[in-house]
Amino acid sequence: MIPRTEADMRELPVAGRPPAERADAALNRRRILRAAAEVIAARGPAAVSMDEVARAAGVGVGTVYRRFGDRARLVYAVIDDRERDFQDAFIHGPPPLGPGAAPPERLRAFLHALADRTEAQAELLLMAEADPPGARFRDGSYALYHMHLAMLLARIRPGADTAYLADALLAPLAANLFLHQRRVRGMPLERVKAGLDALAGALIAAPEPS
């Protein structure tokens, strides 16, 4: 069920927050994430492999697989700190991104903030979203974004198909399309944000469904 109140959203946990761990498990996690970040910084996200990260971290490759499952989850863990900050901002932070602003303002603020967030780590997000195929939609962050947008859209357009519309607003922020627009078509970030504003504005101004 989609939350319909600010209180519902404020009670949502931040997706991806690691559970409490034993000291040795927490140490291994830090070693693995530090090693993965160093591989990415040195040679780019495409160079990340579970074997190489295990060697750099000084742990067995089985430990890496048990802790993270696959390469996509490892990459998501590397970007988790920024992701948790972003999620905290739209769930608990000040308006217009956080609670307190009118739904149309929050909708636009969220799309702009998500564009900034994608800009900051687009290559990592591209890798995480593509490996394995469809990983973007299985990640807890996407589900949380969708829930948040659906809640705002339900307030703006009661009775609309908010589940579909939330997916439609998130589609332009898939990392592959975002990077194509930014690097192949040469669109500045402000143009991307203006396009998101146009999409949001069309939804906000649309007549109520019969």
Would you give the CATH topology of the largest domain? Tetracycline Repressor, domain 2
Radius of gyration: 19 Å
| Shape-level CATH architecture of the largest domain | Orthogonal Bundle
- Beta-strand level of the residues, as a percent range? under 5%
**N/C terminus separation:** 23 Å
Sequence stretches where pLDDT stays below 50 over 5 or more residues: none
Q: Which CATH class of the largest domain applies here?
A: Mainly Alpha
The residue fraction in helices comes out at over 70%
> What is the domain tally?
2
Supply the helix-strand structural class.
Answer: mainly alpha
Shape: elongated
**Number of E strands:** 0
Q: Summarize the biggest pleated sheet.
A: none
Give average pLDDT, whole number. Answer: 86
Order of helices and strands: HHHHHHHHHHHHH
SS element count, helices: 13
